[in-house]
Amino acid sequence: MPDSDNAKIGRAAVITMASVFLSRxxxxxxxxxxxxxxxxxxxxxxxxxxxxxxxxxxxxLAAGAMSITFxxxxxxxxxxxxxxxxxRAFSTIATVMGTIMxxxxxxxxxxxxxxxxxxxxxxLSPEQTVMAAQLTRIILPAQIFFYLGGLLMAVQYARKEFxxxxxxxxxxxxxxxxxxxxxxxxxxMAGFAWGVTGGAFLGNFAxxxxxxxxxGLVFRPRFDLSSPALREFIRLTIPIMLGFSIIEVDxxxxxxxxxxxxxxxxxxxxxARRLMMVPVGILGQASGVAxxxxxxxxxxxxxxxxxxxxxxxxxxxxxxxxxxxxxxxxALSPESVLLAYKRGAFQMEDTLQTASALSAFAxxxxxxxxxxxxxxxxxxxxxxxxxxxxxxxxxxxxLPVYYFLHKTHGVFGLALASTAGILLSAGALYVILMRQTxxxxxxxxxxxxxxxALSAVLATAAGTYALRATEQxxxxxxxxxxxxxxxxxxxxxxxxxxxxTFLLGCRTIREIRNIRRKENPR
Length: 522
Prior knowledge:
Blueprint: H1 3-38, H2 42-49, H3 52-60, H4 66-79, H5 83-110, H6 112-120, H7 126-139, H8 142-158, H9 163-187, H10 189-214, H11 228-242, H12 246-258, H13 265-300, H14 304-331, H15 333-341, H16 348-363, H17 365-380, H18 385-437, H19 446-469, H20 479-503, H21 508-519
Helix pairs in contact: 1-9, 1-13, 2-7, 2-13, 3-8, 4-5, 4-8, 4-11, 4-13, 5-8, 5-11, 6-7, 7-10, 8-10, 9-10, 11-18, 12-13, 12-18, 13-14, 13-16, 13-17, 13-18, 14-16, 14-17, 14-19, 14-20, 15-16, 15-20, 16-18, 17-18, 19-20
């Protein structure tokens, strides 16, 4: 891969990582406000269940994949010098698919109680179901803004413009916090729900409309069902609509099985998964977003091997860092949860249960990051079927594991089943993409991932032992004790992890240093 492309991807990654990092901080602040005001109760379970229908609608119409499916289409128009045709394609897709989304949102507003009671969270009490339905009606319109905003972001990504799209999650999370602070105590969880819709309108739609129009976007409503671009768009999105993304279906499955456990279980799983997704978002999702336009551009010009090299280079360094992060979070899950959530109505039992789930989620961090990057290799090749089939099959295989482990190990078991599902999905996608691009040549890279995984296991074991040995000297059950143990423990695990990868001959860290030297020559 040319050094200039490395530098461009690096700059894009910095912007998106900064966005995700700040967004995760705001996301933590949002969850902390909820935990402080309401703890982990029947009401917070109902609030989390209220996202079931909006999330399903988002998946059903592939709203979460708008930028993924539209970027290669718009990139081709730009590569061929047909920008105005690209704008017409945008107008047609936004008009037709936006109208369909509005129809389903209205339909969802009419029957939320029945849907929640039958398929979303059947273990909730009647009172919780009614509350969840009321909150669902408030949250549903946000899906329209997410849907159209995804297309507007795709236009900017295709032009290698990342700054304004990077602001969307910040404004969205800020909106939820403001809604909760202004209305949370008086109106309960409804204040946070109004913040969801307000944040989605401002951050994901209004600001993105400004960014796309600033780049020259021209929009005129076009309801043209015969448009070739619309047909291509539908062809790419149908697999996502029909199949299951492991990311979305995992969240739904955790919520479904969690509704049959004790009160607070859905909230414990939600909070633990949120903490796990901090490094996943910063490392995996941000790197996937940053590299995707470059992967799509390489495939648009027929450079399949160069696309694999670009993706593989990104994947190795992300796996290296995320495996270390997973080791730290596994060993330090009680300290992490106590510092993040234990205050106000969120008590020690909530802390222990959330930490138990977090430790199981932490094992899957490098695989969640890998899935976010590898899947974009398929999307760059305009192959949306393979990730969908792999995600659906992985979920189907893991479903009995969810059932068995939730019966035997509660929230810890559900989190462990989630990790098994993402491991299976990410592994399958990597093998298939390797065979479709470079064949057996890619096998030579597998020992590198094995070295990093083994180093993470050894660092986790050493860190866990050291933390237990010092527990009598410094307890984790106080804020000061947890903070000290978190800082010292993370540093210790990082040193052990780095030393172990060096002793095992891991070359990834050397590659990262070489890239930095080329970008910053003395």
